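Mods, move this if it's the wrong board.
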Amino acid sequence: MRLSEIATVSDSVENDKVAAWYNSKGTSTRAIVMAIERQPGTNTIEVVDRIRAQIPAFRIQLPGAVDLHVLFDRSQTIRESMADVKFTLLLTIALVILVIFLFLRKLSATIIPALALPISLIGTFAAMYAFGFSINNITLMALTLSVGFVVDDAIVMLENIVRHMEQGESPRAASLRGAREIGFTIVSMTVSLVAVFIPVLFMAGMLGRMLHEFAVTITVAILISGIVSLTLTPMLCSRFLRSPKAERHGRLYEMMEGFFNGWLHLYENSLSWVLNHRRATLLFTVISTFFAVWLFTRMPLGLLPSDDIGAIRGMSEGAQGVSFEEMKR
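Not the wrong board. Structure tokens:
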């Protein structure tokens, strides 16, 4: 009876047709790639920091002919993105305060609505901590967008109180009357803004899960700003505002006053033209609406915008039947 060889048995890994190389200092050497993936719900930056803290101990235990290198670090793009969003948030706060100062032209009147910003943000951070949210791109984007919302109520309250002071009332009496008159308006403004984000809050699917923290964060910021505008803003107005009759203005104030009066006159003329040409205005509105709908149908659709993660990946495919050794070569 003749025996024939039917197989070759070897003590090795399950798949020996996998190889890797690492290019270090211009030379390509064989390598073993170990990918570390975080568990759902864990923080990428925290995981990376803990791994990097263990790398020196791993290098000590390795033989001298073996080097340990980091091939790809996903936390780098996350850190850069977080830094960009933080800078945008600070720049937004500075621009909002600057715009308030340019229009109010009073330091005390600027500080009052500006204080609504840090207080609303601090309250929002407390709510985020209570809900178990983290500081990420989504929540920071919500805070950046809410910066413009949180000062609106305070400015409306401030302007109404100043209007009563210009009519001769004391700061305390003007604050009480102004807050009583405008309180319901601020409540309706706050509720209407919150209602915009309710559909996002209850959105289902992957996108809804992604935007859940965004909707909650911006909703909490708007609610806190409404409370601040109804309580802190009138109190500050009664303490720090002075009667407009007792104030003296310089040349810069008068120059800016003339500039604003010019824009007000331009607005009056444009409003009068619109009211005198109602049919043309209505026709232009209808045409603009249809044009916007047409543009919406023509624009490309996508789930998320393209993201730059700082890496380029290339894939090559060999001919059918090519050997593993030939692919290595």
